[in-house]
Design goal:
It is a single chain. The protein is built from 14 helices and no strands.
């Protein structure tokens, strides 16, 4: 079931429930709603796939159940006390990525028939973060609520534990909150249904996709990078705006996933604006436990490399994705090495303009690498 179908169903359900909540003066941010609604979404997905491939569905159900159990245990491992805890967390995260990438390896190497469970990786990320961030005495309901905010299941954002405190107490949905929700849904719809089709229709015809092994001209590289540069933002941020807006209709404050990333003046600034929840997850559970920015230049580069190679592998085990992750790690390491130079410290218009051009050119080129085949 495509992501947009889940979001359409979620939007309809959210509008109906939000209207009911307004009439009743009730808050929808309560434990009884989300497990039921999320179960319905997943049930619809599986029943829809059952007709297409019963054998694949059976295998998929077993693997997904095992994945959830494994990630729950890995989250407990990451949260357990002892020395050295940071290495225990690193091992747990590596186990998490092994669980995420294992089905793909089975599909490729053994030819095991599998369906692709939409949003499973987001669900597993949330479950790991929820369990790793809480003590053993935490209520299971709390973990369940964080992992089953169903409008965000298909494409994110990843609902992290520290960003989900609003669910602790019911509150009335104000007119301001409603207006914010409607505005976000409208912005997401404009990106997905007006701007994105226009870009595909008027731009893609001049773009060679996928890029072949022959060396393309510099003009085509720039054109291809610009196409992906614009399309990815409209597509991904459009889905995210819809999901955050739908959650707002249900009375949930979910963190924005994009904050004008193409206005960034540095790579570090870019990763504070692009796919914010995933970047926060990687920073918290991979980069910081490895040592973060502490230590020598080699140690910082190693930590960045590990974090971004895993980030690339999450998109898929292909040379292009891994190279994309490595490219961003090297770019951030180089940026850190020259952070005291005039260009990065100066606030003049010329210096800021040059930083912007260099940063955005790097990002544009990285999207060419990301989609290289």
């Amino acid at each position: 079931m495509p992501a947009i179908d889940i979001l359409r169903a979620s939007l309809l359900l959210a509008v109906l429930l939000a209207g009911w909540g307004r009439l009743r003066g009730a808050s929808l941010a309560s434990a009884r709603f989300f497990p039921i609604l999320s179960s319905g979404v997943f049930a619809f997905f599986y029943l829809n796939n059952l007709r297409a491939s019963p054998a694949a569905l059976q295998t998929d159900l077993i693997l997904n159940g095992a994945s959830l159990a494994a990630v729950f245990w890995l989250g407990r491992l990451a949260s357990s006390s002892g020395t050295p805890q940071h290495w225990r967390r690193v091992v747990a995260v590596l186990g998490l990525f092994a669980v995420l990438l294992g089905p793909e390896l089975l599909r490729r190497s053994a030819g095991v028939p599998l369906t692709r469970t939409l949003g499973l990786s987001y669900l597993l990320f949330r479950l790991f973060d929820a369990v790793a961030s809480q003590s053993r005495q935490s209520a299971p309901t709390r973990i369940l609520l964080q992992t089953t905010a169903f409008p965000t299941l298909p494409v994110g954002p990843i609902v992290l534990h520290r960003q989900f405190g609003v669910i602790k107490r019911p509150f009335q949905i104000s007119d301001v909150f409603y207006r914010r929700a409607v505005l976000l849904i409208l912005i997401g719809a404009i990106k997905l249904f007006l701007l994105l089709p226009w870009v595909d229709a008027h731009w893609e015809t001049g773009v060679r996709r996928p890029i072949g092994l022959s060396l393309p001209s510099l003009v085509n590289v720039a054109q291809t990078g610009a196409y992906y540069y614009v399309r990815l933002f409209l597509d991904f941020s459009g889905y995210s705006d819809l999901a955050v807006g739908i959650c707002a209709l249900l009375g949930l404050r979910i963190r924005h996933n994009f904050r004008q990333p193409y206005l960034a003046l540095s790579l570090r600034d870019f990763w504070r604006r692009w796919h914010i929840t995933l970047a926060s997850f990687i920073q918290r559970h991979v980069y910081i436990p490895l040592g973060g920015g502490r230590g020598s230049a080699w140690q910082r580069t190693r930590n960045l490399g590990a974090a971004f190679i895993l980030l690339g592998a999450w998109h898929g085990l292909t040379p292009a994705f891994l190279a994309w992750g490595g490219l961003h790690a090297l770019g951030l390491a180089a940026e850190h090495a020259v952070r005291e130079r005039w260009l990065l410290r100066s606030s003049t218009i010329g210096a800021r303009a040059l930083r912007y051009v260099l940063t955005q050119s790097f990002i544009l080129f990285s999207w060419v690498v990301f989609f290289w085949k």
